[in-house]
Design a protein that fits this description.
- The complex is a heterodimer.
- By secondary structure, chain A is α+β, with helices and mostly antiparallel strands.
- Chain A contains two helices and five strands, in the order βαβββαβ.
- In chain A, a hairpin with a 5-residue loop joins β3 and β4.
- Chain A is globular, with a radius of gyration of 11 Å.
- The relative contact order of chain B is 0.07.
- In chain B, β1 and β2 form a beta hairpin.
- Classes of the chains: A alpha+beta, B mainly alpha.
- At the A-B interface, α1, β4 and α2 of A face α2, α11, α16 and β8 of B.
- β4 of chain A pairs antiparallel with β8 of chain B.
Chain lengths: ~80, ~600
């Protein structure tokens, strides 16, 4: 499933980042990588962005829906 | 793009510190990051002071790893150690120094702790020219790099002044700038790099373009785990509690409205007080000059000069200064990124991103720094749409006109109506533009930093940079325009201009013919149209000579038509003259449409 389909408040693991060139490098330089564990902390209204926290570093990022649908994640049990 | 240079003396030796825009990597994503990269590789740098945010160290170390590869001497300033400690992170500085091979100093810059020690170490590093220990990647990558290094002619590294290994890494990373240089120096190396990159990607099933991004991440994470210990916090922090309100889908929006309302109200109250202080002492001077200006060209020109100076100092600056200061505060404290997060969904409907809200708010102070502010947006499309929308936001000069004419003669509720109409029109134009401006809009991706109390010095600096854009790029134009206007008035061309414009003014808009001249000069600086209106009508009691509909039509037209010359100049610099022409045409058409519609309704 993609990050945009995932539920808020659940532990997720980033499995793949699809889409073109620079989206990916920018994600990496801002702190999200394949293999990172993340949580969707909240969703902005009017189908706005998601607030994603990277668990290992505590970094919080606003990720737009378009970008979120290009990030493949899986739910971690617990 | 502006950055500060400051000369400091450390241990009896003087050195020049250059503060470059912050960047996450040497692979630039926006114009500011490009500046940083270009400067670092320009050969003018003796040593780099790499300021690392200790509270998000694993991410920051990726840049450190990249910087060490440039072969330049580096000192790492491990900043915000207090924040890191609060987050439960302890860092073994000695171990980090050993791993990186460069000096590491722990600092709390807001309190000045460790700063002089950083400067001293940077001085030593620039003398000894000792570079750090470049990170080792996995075996396959290292083998690829070795093959590539062998194919790079030794004179290439000499010519560019960087280590061969750095060049090999950049080529493997498909760096555009280095790649272009090598197309001439050694096309073979570029070809080999493409082959090696493909090989690595296929071998490991990595996407080609992120081979190095994920490598550096892995290296930085390993480093972080080796030198830092984290005791994670358990309870809800105060940051989370504040965010529960400020980022709430409902209360958050109330927060945005209150914050922006407060921002403008406070700016206007302070601005009004400041304007009074500035204008009062000039009054006898302008009156004295005005008396002589009627029969001497030189006195008329001097009068124009003084009017231009006062126009900038008395109308724009008093409002701009508090607005910019408060904006910088909201930005640095961490609120604006959160506001951008909330409004992103709404701004998407008019074809923009949440980040565009910052230049748009600046537009209400002065359009010139606002246009320059579009540089923070990554995509060309966003920059163009935002730069086309900014002239629709009523800058302080136009707010003065709206307040004087509409609030003054029709009442405050009418003025509020004009502002609401202004916002609606801006949104509608944005919606239409987003359908026509080519290019794709990449999704929003923005760091949401923790709340922080910004040090006053940093605030003052940020405000100064934006004020300087007004002082350097807008004010001189206003002054020149004001002198030109004085000359034209002296030459008594008003009559010609008025009759030339009468098809528009009285024909289409239904206004008195004498306002023609005020509209022409309003292009030079919008607040002039108010002053000139009094002069053209021969009274400041406008309501006695114009109907309420005419006052409304005039104000709306002045608010929306052609942006002032200083704004046009800024637009040409940021988005090119073609888009600037589009912007001028767009504003004029919208202004005529709205003013005539109001005229019909009234």
């Amino acid at each position: 499933m993609t990050l945009s389909q995932a539920a808020a408040g659940k532990k997720l693991k980033v499995v793949a980042l699809k889409k073109g060139n620079c989206n990916r490098c920018n994600l990496a330089s801002l702190g999200i990588h394949v293999g990172d564990e993340v949580i969707i902390r909240r969703c902005a209204p009017f189908s706005g962005p998601l607030l994603v926290e990277v668990l290992s570093s505590g970094i919080q990022l606003a990720v737009g829906r378009g970008m979120a649908s290009s990030m493949e994640v899986e739910m971690l049990d617990e | 793009m502006s950055f500060t240079r400051s000369d400091v003396v450390v241990a009896g030796l003087s050195m020049r510190l250059v503060d470059l825009p912050g960047t996450y990597s040497l692979h630039p994503f926006d114009a500011a990051e490009q500046v940083t990269r270009d400067f670092l590789l320009s050969g003018q740098v003796d040593a780099i002071i790499n300021v690392v945010d200790a509270s998000v160290m694993s991410r920051s170390l990726e840049l450190t790893v990249e910087l060490i590869e440039t072969g330049l001497p580096i000192v790492v300033a491990l900043n915000m150690m207090d924040d890191a400690q609060r987050k439960g992170i302890t860092i073994d500085i000695k171990a980090l120094e050993a791993k990186l091979g460069v000096p590491v100093v722990s600092t709390i810059a807001t309190r000045g702790q460790g700063v002089s020690s950083v400067a001293l170490k940077a001085l030593h590093a620039s003398k000894s020219k000792r570079a750090g220990i470049p990170a080792t990647y996995d075996r396959d990558t290292e083998e690829s790099l070795n093959r590539l290094m062998a194919s790079i002619p030794p004179e290439a590294a000499d010519k560019l002044g960087v280590p061969t290994r750095f060049l090999a890494i950049r080529l493997l990373q498909n760096d555009e700038v280095i790649g272009k240089v090598f197309q001439e120096l050694s096309p073979d190396a570029v070809e080999l790099a493409n082959k090696e990159r493909k090989f690595l990607a296929d071998e490991h099933n990595w996407p080609e373009e992120s081979v190095f991004a994920s490598h550096r991440h892995a290296v930085a994470m390993d480093l972080f785990e080796e030198v830092a210990r984290v005791v994670p916090r358990q309870k809800l922090s105060w940051r989370d509690r504040i965010d529960n309100v400020l980022m709430h889908p409902f209360w958050g929006f109330i927060g945005v409205i209150v914050a922006l309302g407060g921002l403008f109200t406070l700016s206007f109250v302070v601005g009004d007080a400041l304007a009074g202080l500035v204008e009062a002492p000039f009054e006898p001077l302008t009156e004295a000059i005005g008396a002589k200006a009627e029969n001497s060209l030189w006195w008329a020109m001097l009068g124009g000069l003084v009017d231009g100076v006062i126009g900038g100092a008395g109308i724009v600056l008093p409002f701009l200064l508090p607005l910019l200061l408060l904006m910088s505060f909201l930005e640095d404290v961490g609120y604006l990124p959160r506001a951008a997060f909330l409004v992103d969904g709404l701004l998407h409907r008019i074809g923009l991103h949440g980040k565009s809200i910052i230049p748009l708010i600046l537009g209400y102070g002065c359009n010139v720094p606002a246009i320059m502010g579009v540089r923070i947006l990554e995509s060309t499309r966003d920059r163009i749409i935002t730069a086309l929308l900014i002239p629709f936001t009523a800058c302080s000069a136009r707010i003065v006109v709206i307040l004087a004419l509409v609030a003054g003669f029709l009442g405050p509720w009418w003025a509020l109506g004009v502002f609401v109409l202004n916002i609606l029109v801006t949104a509608l134009v944005g919606r239409i533009l987003s359908a026509f401006v080519p290019g794709s809009a990449p999704g929003l991706l923005m760091d949401i930093p923790p709340y922080r109390l910004p040090p006053p010095k940093a605030l003052a600096q940020k405000t100064w940079f934006r004020i300087r854009e007004f002082l350097v790029h807008a004010w001189p134009i206003i002054i020149v325009a004001s002198i030109v206007m004085a000359v034209l008035q002296y030459a008594q061309v008003d009559g010609y201009l008025n009759s030339f414009l009468s098809p528009l003014t009285s024909g289409v808009l239904g206004l008195p013919v004498v306002v023609g001249v005020t509209l022409v000069f309003g292009v030079l600086a919008k607040e002039l149209s108010l002053v000139l209106l009094y002069a053209a009508l021969g009274t400041s009691d406008i309501i006695s000579v114009m109907s309420t509909t005419q006052i409304l039509t005039f104000t709306l037209f002045v608010t929306f038509y052609v942006p002032c010359v200083a704004t046009i100049a800024a637009q040409i610099r940021e988005i090119g003259w073609r888009w600037t022409l589009v912007s001028v045409a767009l504003n004029t058409v919208v202004a005529v449409l709205i003013a005539t519609t109001i005229g019909r309704l009234g």
